[in-house]
Design brief:
The chain is an all-alpha fold. Among the domains are: 146 residues, Recoverin, domain 1 (Orthogonal Bundle); 26 residues, no CATH class. The protein has a two-stranded antiparallel sheet with strand order 1-2. A hairpin with a 7-residue loop joins strand 1 and strand 2. The longest helix is centred in the last third of the chain and has 22 residues. The chain starts with 9 loop residues before the first helix and ends with a helix. 11% of the residues are buried. It comes from Rhinolophus ferrumequinum. InterPro entries: EF-hand-dom_pair (IPR011992), EF_Hand_1_Ca_BS (IPR018247), EF_hand_dom (IPR002048), EFHB_EF-hand_C (IPR057428), EFHC1/EFHC2/EFHB (IPR040193). It is found in: Cytoplasm, Cytoskeleton, Flagellum axoneme. Its main location: cytoplasm. Keywords: Calcium, Cell projection, Cilium, Cytoplasm, Cytoskeleton, Flagellum, Metal-binding, Repeat.
Length: 361
């Protein structure tokens, strides 16, 4: 028997084979007993909506939804980034880059000129991707890319400053008052008007550098009938305040019931003693010193009260202190005294003295 084959129970062998881990397969011991295909999904299948959160925020139309177009948008962004990089490294000004694209010299770029510029930049795109790129840059949907659209979507206009002679060329087309013949030749060959004067704005307020204004695509603009929740509830100055609204349901801060002296661990109810964001930004003097509500309402002896009053600078004679202690102890049915009771009694006595002084004068 020592040299013979090892005897293994068939039941044990079947069990090991069924529960054997296999690479790339999920361990499912009862797969043989199921009457469903391997790719079956149990439960109700939830189909995703055609729109996403951004489509809801910008109130886009069904034909302008961006959900599911991630690959298309990524390809367009990659082509634009490549063209921006080539324009920034190959040309000194936006005007020079625009002249490179505008082969016909008519002041606009059509689809054929854009395709030729992509080929010269070693960027071979198919017809579908070229149409998507052109539609992205053509904001006014006139079938052409003008100078302002070219500067916004195919260039880093913030990295290329707008020079003085370039500004005169793209607005008025007149010769500069300088001896540079190259600039004059460039101006004469350009159209008389590429953009409007109001399209040139200051790069930053207070600085002399200028740049072209930023264009917004129609999908980035909020619709005219777009309304916020704040405007729907009339949360504006002069409207009906929220205090006049009828209150329904259980309040968030349970100030209507007394807070328990000993809270359960599972009790997450806010009884009004918890701080909010305002208390964190503007803590009280008691919070800064580490004095809390329990310290005010804690029962204290006459000696402790006297020491507290002495430490905070309240000077009372022995007779006055006895009177204050007597009045404070009468406010509790057991005669217990806390710091809050002493403070209330002192305020009442001070208020009574003021009234007495007013009546005598």
């Amino acid at each position: 028997m020592r040299r013979g084959a090892k005897v293994v129970s068939k039941r044990v062998d079947d069990f090991k084979e069924k529960f054997q881990h296999k690479l790339g397969r999920v361990l499912d011991p009862i797969a043989e007993t199921m009457t469903v295909p391997p790719d079956h999904t149990f439960g109700a299948c939830s189909h995703p909506e055609d729109y996403g959160a951004g489509d809801l925020i910008y109130n886009r139309l069904p034909g302008e939804y961006l959900r599911g177009k991630d690959r298309q948008r990524a390809l367009v962004a990659a082509v634009r980034h490549h063209l921006k990089k080539v324009n920034c490294e190959s040309f000194d000004t936006l005007l020079e880059a625009f002249r490179h694209y505008d082969k016909k010299g008519d002041g606009v770029i059509d689809k054929a000129e854009l395709r030729e510029a992509c080929d010269q930049a070693n960027l071979h795109v198919d017809e579908k991707l070229l149409d998507q790129l052109f539609d992205y840059c053509d904001v006014d949907n006139d079938g052409l890319i003008n100078y302002l659209e070219f500067a916004n979507f195919l260039n880093w206009k913030d990295k290329v400053p707008l020079k003085e002679y370039e500004e005169r060329v793209i607005i008025k087309g007149r010769k500069p008052d300088c001896a540079n013949t190259a600039e004059a030749t460039a101006e004469e060959s350009e159209p008389t008007l590429l953009i409007k004067p109001e399209d040139i704005v200051l790069k930053e307020p207070g600085r002399s550098e200028k740049t072209l204004r930023t264009l917004l695509r129609p999908s980035d603009k909020v619709s005219n009938h777009y309304k916020t929740t704040s405007s729907e509830i009339s949360a504006v100055v002069g409207a009906v305040p929220s205090m006049c609204y009828p209150i329904c349901g259980v309040p968030t801060i349970r100030s209507d019931i007394p807070a328990p002296r000993i809270r359960r661990i599972s009790d997450r109810t806010n009884y009004g003693e918890e701080g909010n964001a305002y208390s964190l930004l503007h803590p009280t003097i008691f919070g800064q010193k580490g004095v809390y509500e329990r310290d005010f309402f804690k029962t204290r002896s006459k000696k402790e009260i006297a020491e507290i009053l002495c430490n905070i600078g309240v000077k009372l004679s022995e007779e006055e202190f006895e009177n204050v202690w007597k009045l404070a102890s009468e406010k509790h049915h057991r005669g217990e005294v806390c710091v809050e009771n002493i403070r209330n009694v002192l305020d009442e006595l001070q208020h009574a003295d003021r009234i007495k002084c007013k009546t005598t004068t």
